[in-house]
Amino acid sequence: MHGILPEDDIDYINDTPTVQEYKKLRRVMKIMTNFYVGGSKTKLEQAEFFEEELQKVTLDEDMINAQLEAFKSFPIHPKRRDYEIELNEELEKLLALKKKFTTKADEYRKLHIWSNGIVKVTKWLEAGLDDYCVNHLKMDLGFQVQPKPELGKEEYKSYKEGLDEITYNLQESQDFFCASLDGRLRQYHQMEKDIIVSQIESIKKFPEDSPRRAHILSELEADLEYVSKNMTEDPSSLAKRKRMLEMHSDFFKVLRWYREKMKVLGDEYGFVDDDKRTEEEKIKSAMSNQVEFMTNFKAEESPEIEELKKLNLIH
To answer: Phi/psi at 148 (nearest 5 deg)?
Structure first.
């Protein structure tokens, strides 16, 4: 018995969904797929940006090396020495930039490849929903679905791992948005700001004509401006965080439903999960350093937070 269901509450999806619940699954899956498709596109753009920057730096590096090579046909002339000092200093800075851009390009390229795999899983889940409901659960949705071939062991394992990975990644993301609303993210940023300010104060004790002082101070002030901007909590940004938390909460519930269905299929196929880690261990392994560190802070109390608790958006 399903009883009377709220029109748009994803919490009410049962093991064998009604047509109404099926539509909820459909809706959330479409949003989820588009969410990851958009994320994959962004990661690709970020990878390509740093790859282009890397090409520019590499070109400049080649140019400097060509200049240094041209000096070899000349004796150690004072002018040659002056040029070489300048060029080697410039080269050192370029190599630092090259290392940074190489790391970033590689990071975003790997994230893009990872997110493509996630998109593949979400599209597979979305495409398989009709098949599962009509042919496996024998639901009457008013249309027929051509049964999909039974998954092979490796294929099942691949999709299950992808589904688990999405779930743990989403849990981490959900934890972040919880922290952004219950005050822990603000505390995290405040500590970050205090660290930057302490660095600025220590640097300012040295002579103003120091090139390093000017360079480092400029970077620290940029960091301070960035973290201060992140600490801004106007009503629109808080509303956006709440919407994101609500969306992630729906995603998480739907993924949990899918994981339960995959487990049923796995039991039927006789598949055994080789990953012996606990759920807590799996979730922790997906946590970013930032989210993991924020567990050290205590959630604040406010009427807004109490309201979110009543909605089961934060705990």
So the answer is: -85, 150
Structure tokens, 52: 């282009």
> Tokens in use for 278?
């606990």
Torsion sign over Cα 219, 220, 222, 223: positive
Asked, for residue 72, whether it belongs to a domain, the answer is yes
Q: Among 37-41, 145-149, 278-282, which is the least confidently predicted range?
A: 278-282
Reading the block at residue 200, the tokens are 């600025």
Tens of pLDDT, residue by residue over 38-56, are 999 999 999 999 999 999 9
CA distance 160 to 271: 11
Q: For the segment 177-212, what is each residue's pLDDT rounded down to a tens digit? A: 888 888 888 899 999 999 999 999 999 999 999 888
Q: Could you tell me the residue range of the domain that residue 31 belongs to?
A: 17-148
Residue-by-residue DSSP string for 165-222: HHHHHHHHHHHHHHHHHSSHHHHHHHHHHHHHHHHHHHHTTS-TT-HHHHHHHHHHHH
Residue at 109 is within a domain: yes
What's the total number of domains in the chain?
A: 1
How far, in whole angstroms, is CA 190 from its chain's centroid?
22
End-to-end, the C-alpha distance of the chain in Å comes to 29
The predicted-structure confidence for 101-114, as pLDDT tens digits, reads as follows 999 999 999 999 98
* Model pTM score: 0.68
**Taking Cα atoms as reference points, which of 244, 266, 187 lies closest to residue 31?**
244
Q: Which two tokens stand for residue 48?
A: 């390509």
Distance separating alpha carbons of residues 180 and 191, to the nearest angstrom: 15
Tell me if 113 is assigned to some domain: yes
Nearby residues of 130 by Cβ (< 8 Å), 6 or more positions away:
141, 143, 145
Q: Is residue 23 included in any domain, yes or no?
A: yes
How far is Cα 268 from Cα 261, in angstroms, rounded to an integer?
11
**φ/ψ bin of 76: left (φ > 0), alpha (ψ from -120 to 50), beta (otherwise):** beta
Matching residue, tokens 């000092």: 85
